């Protein structure tokens, strides 16, 4: 009995990740409150040309162009006509819970990420339906035709099993024919699909990564504890995939074909300063854009106030790390 108990404890400990060396810290350059988001809950950011776009997971019928000319930014609503959602292969139980939850919180589609290709097409991931909406510069919006094999493979690997823990972010290459999707948690993971004529499908296999387990919150977090590994957004820059890992308060650079971690950077020093803390016992950052000069990051604060009383969604600008995002450890 004692041997069995000791073995169980050992297995539990091995499932909790503790960084041997702390990730280098990113430097905060500026922060911007957002006014004008009807549903609040900023859940995704994208830089399309010179325009910064945002989505809310409470708004099904509009996205937002951000006016960044002043210190406080204003969100300009842009309506989108959303056609009926296709069947992605999610089981009825998950879809029905999303439908019921929409009556309480709003947002049946539960938009959780936005990205764009070089032609200016915007792509928005619906967590509630595990589907991707394409919004062109002109013409009607349409859902991508994604092979049901994608959802089957993801679920077989342990992803997309929990309500409100489905796809949380996405990234697309500039030519618009490769799309990465991030499953949030329990298990978190990364999926890659490619456009094949009219259908988006797996190329050999869809799943690049699927992992469960726990990791320690950073020591700056009050009463830090072990929490579920998670992804809350993706950004593709300079041929690398960057994952926003909010429970660990870090951004990690990964190989886009294998999902292997190459390097991570922490933002805990800046966003866990006492005045910027939120009362929730987990991270709230859900939006990421990485570029040559730094990173934009946005928070989904669920209309909750942080320690200094700020209620509005916030977008932060971080400087690029010393040596750039391609720097080796």
Automatic annotation (TrEMBL):
Sequence ranges assigned to domain Phytase-like in this UniProt record = 40-186
Query: Which superkingdom does the taxonomy of this entry point to?
Result: Bacteria
Its keywords, alphabetically, are: Signal
Please state the span of the N-terminal signal peptide per the UniProt entry. Answer: 1-20
Per its UniProt record, what InterPro entries does this chain match?
Answer: Phytase-like_dom
Q: List the source organism.
A: Pseudomonas mohnii
- The protein, known as: Esterase-like activity of phytase
- Do you know which SUPFAM superfamilies this protein is assigned to? NHL repeat
């Amino acid at each position: 009995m004692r041997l069995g108990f000791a073995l169980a404890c050992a297995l539990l400990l091995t499932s909790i990740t503790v960084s041997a060396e702390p990730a280098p810290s990113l430097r905060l350059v500026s922060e911007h409150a957002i006014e004008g988001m009807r549903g609040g809950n900023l859940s995704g950011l994208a830089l399309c040309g010179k325009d910064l776009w945002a989505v809310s997971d409470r708004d099904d019928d509009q996205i937002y162009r951000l006016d960044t000319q002043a210190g406080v930014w204003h969100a300009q609503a842009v309506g989108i006509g959303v056609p009926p959602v296709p069947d992605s292969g999610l089981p009825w139980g998950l879809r029905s819970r999303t439908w019921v939850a929409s009556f309480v919180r709003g947002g049946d589609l539960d938009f959780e990420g936005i990205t764009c290709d070089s032609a200016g097409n915007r792509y928005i991931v619906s967590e509630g339906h595990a589907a991707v909406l394409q919004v062109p510069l002109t013409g009607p919006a349409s859902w991508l035709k994604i092979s049901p094999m994608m959802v089957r493979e993801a679920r077989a690997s342990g992803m997309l099993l929990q309500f409100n823990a489905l796809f949380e972010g996405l990234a697309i290459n500039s030519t618009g024919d490769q799309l990465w999707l991030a499953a949030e948690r329990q298990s978190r993971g990364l999926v890659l699909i490619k456009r094949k004529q009219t259908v988006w499908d797996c190329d050999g296999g869809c799943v690049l990564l699927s992992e469960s387990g726990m990791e320690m919150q950073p020591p700056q977090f009050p009463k830090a504890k072990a929490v579920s590994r998670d992804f809350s957004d993706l950004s593709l820059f300079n041929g690398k995939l960057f994952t926003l890992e909010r429970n660990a308060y870090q951004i990690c650079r990964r190989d886009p074909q294998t999902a292997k971690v190459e390097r991570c950077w922490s933002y805990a020093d800046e966003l866990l300063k006492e005045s910027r803390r939120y009362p929730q016992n987990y991270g709230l950052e859900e939006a990421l854009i990485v570029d040559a000069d730094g990173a934009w990051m946005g928070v989904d604060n669920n209309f909750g106030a942080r320690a200094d009383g700020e209620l509005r969604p916030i977008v932060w600008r971080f400087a690029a790390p010393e040596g750039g995002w391609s720097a080796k450890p």
